[in-house]
Design goal:
38% of the residues lie in helices and 16% in strands.
């Protein structure tokens, strides 16, 4: 499946980990875009078609919750699914993300299977048990 994924995280190494995990989860044909904070993400979204946003919560300039709120108020972007990937595992915080329009939440560390199952669920596709890309050893992020 080919689509455009925007990864929003202030950590370049974490963006690379997320991208690599998506590829290992079977999304190697996706086009990846990257932003270091919510403000950069919004600027990028004005110029590039994005099918799904993966965002961290804790970022400078504009955090993930602020980004979600702005996207969901914009008629052009409001239907784009947003997944929060964060160390914030607090139930109250997760509920806040979901109440403001996040389509899903993944707590770090995560696995390719976790990513695959959540994205398939969001996109309305059945989960599958196909073998994942074996190019990397087993890893847990």
């Amino acid at each position: 499946m080919s689509f455009s994924i925007l990864i929003v995280d202030d950590s370049l190494p974490m963006r690379s980990v997320i991208k690599r995990t998506f590829k290992a989860a079977g999304y190697g044909n996706a086009e990846f875009r990257e932003a270091a904070n919510g403000k950069e993400a919004l600027e990028l979204m004005k110029n590039d078609w994005i099918d799904i946003v993966i965002t961290d919560y804790n970022m400078p300039v504009m955090n993930g919750l602020e980004l979600i709120k702005i996207i969901k108020k914009d008629d052009l972007f409001k239907d784009i699914p947003i997944v929060v990937v964060s160390t914030e595992g607090n139930d109250v915080k997760i509920r806040e993300f979901m109440d403001n329009g996040a389509a899903g939440y993944i707590t770090k560390p995560f696995t390719p299977e976790t990513i695959r199952d959540l994205i398939n669920n969001i996109l309305g596709e059945a989960s599958y048990d196909e073998d994942l890309d074996d190019s990397d050893e087993d890893f847990d992020f």
